[in-house]
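haha ok so turns out i had the wrong file open the whole time. this is the CORRECT one, sorry everyone. sequence first:
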Amino acid sequence: MAAQDKRFAREEWKQPPFDAIARAFMSGQQWWDEATHGVRGVSKHHEDQVAFVARQWLDMVSPSNFIATNPQVLRQTLMTGGANLLNGYLNWARDAVAVAGGGRPRGVEDFAPGRGVALTHAAGYCLGGTLLAIAAALPECPGVVRTLTLLAAQTDFSEPGELGLFMDESQVAFLEDLMTETGYLDGRRMAGVFQLINSKDLVWSKLVHEYLMGATTPMTALRAWNADATRMPARMHAEYLRHLYLRNDLAEGRYCCTSRDPVNLSRITLPMFVVATERDHVSPWASVYRIHQLVASDIDFVLSSGGHNVGIVNPPEGPDAHAVGSYRRAGNKSRKVPAEPGDWFAGAQRSRGSWWPAWSRWLREHSSGTVAARRVPDVGIDGRIASAPGAYVNEP
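then structure:
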């Protein structure tokens, strides 16, 4: 059982007494999981909240997080004469100074937004994909875009995953009051929530690797992008949480956008390429899959290995390529698709590697060939505009 958890997968954890420590922890974790489910008289929402908090405590007290009970840390300490712990302290001190000063992680300045970005058909990622689906359903959309690509984007929020644990009337009201003061929700608050729902990988693994082992994790384009948290405008975020998360108004045909008429996703008939990821803590793939019941489009649905970020940013080659990556893909040109995600999963063929080449081929199939580049007209006070992505994106 312990070997299935990557925290205890290394050979050192198979030796006594650490094998017994790991097994005892996993047994305790299983006991708490069973103890927090199936409790009489407790609603599912509150049951899930208690189970979530219990898991946070268990992740915090995992034997992998402590020097005395982590054989990898002990071995590294003996080999380096304690230099790993000194390096770990220095890593922690640098991070603490950066957090206290509101700064960004070291190394992100080497990955400027907008550098090396190509144009493509209409595509939206996460919340951007949800907004793109709303825009595509408006009467003004036909004839404006050729295809839609949605990446880890939900349109049906009936099963929002663990983010739903933070979404009830009192929480949304609190956030609305908080955003009234500033006009937006600070990106660091959003980043904190995302770290919390995947704390085992995003918090405790970093603690062990950098603060106990004394190692440093090199900055990459993906990590720099992930560290660039987004401020959420107050009105947009309030409507998103209340109307989409709490009430599921978009999927149920009640959400009004630019007029009194509700947004009707069944208006969408454009070809769609929809990507979800197997270990997504933000947009669970089963939730993303529900778009099949909402639109009138031919959909190529892809389920990528990995999580919310790595499963999407998965190039076929280069430093960010994943050697063990894979994906499942199936279309619905006949508009006949299994209603349940599990049935689709069982019938979709698995392919090794990145899903990007499949997307590239799909885009070529739905393209009309190359055209001469169009000149962008000059605008602004001085007759010019800044090069993409503009100046605002670089503000701290």
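The mean pLDDT is 87.
again sry for the mixup
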